[in-house]
Amino acid sequence: MSLLSKLQNKDNGIITRSDLKRPQVRILYYALFTICLIITIISIAPPLWVLLSSFKDIKEFTIEPTILPKEYDLNRFIKTWNDLKFFKFYVNSFYSVAGSVVCAIVFNGLLAFALSIIKPKGSKFIYALVLGSLMVPATTSIVPLFININKLGLSGTFYPLWFSIGANAFYVVLYKQFFDTLPKSIIEAARIDGCNNLQIFTRIVMPLSKPITMVVAMYAVNYAWSDFLLPYLVLNNSGLETVMVRLFQFRNGKTADVDILRAIVFAIIPPIILFTAFQKQITQSNTHSGVKG
Questions:
Q1: pTM value?
Q2: Residue 18 and residue 15: Cα distance in Å, rounded?
């Protein structure tokens, strides 16, 4: 059975099997299929090029360029890993990511809990400010943020990276929208049983909020791992550089380009493994939260 015949047996989606019996719909179906195929190829082409090029030696990459590497020698990756001492930067990145995820869940969750469940006086004004901050480009705040980090003596530590994600308006909005859907009767029952606000947050709200917590955690991991500007300003030449900062430093050094490509492969492997391992949970969590893409 061909691929197209398998697709034609689909009974759900925007175009069903019965729709395909009409010529106009069939033309539309193949047009959409072609567009999706082109977008897919364009999307996977850059990482595929990086992966294939990383197996080449410097001659194959620059002097006599080839499309496919002549051999797939993993020892070249081991040599690059050891030469560039990548393990240290992996540890730094994992440390940065772990703290960022904890801060993203705890601090943003607490603020959303206050805005959605406790609702103190002025909470609507605070939420309006949170929504308004989403309209401010992040790059415009980098200068005052960097000045404050230096005044507080936090330069050369991971705290600025953790706290910046712990005060993320987008995560607050996600949490608040989800908390608004929780049954109020459960909250009131917990209050009648004697739970204070912190106990309601830790014992009732957060256990019921695993889907949105998974979404926030995935976004925080991706952001913390791929962020470059703030780690570069805060951690540069401190010995705590993350993988992304170290990649930039390698590029300015005398390292050969093919080694840079292998270093890029090391940088993109963890997000790929994470997404592959938790693909089902991420998709389900996005559906629960109403976040698409």
A1: 0.78
A2: 8
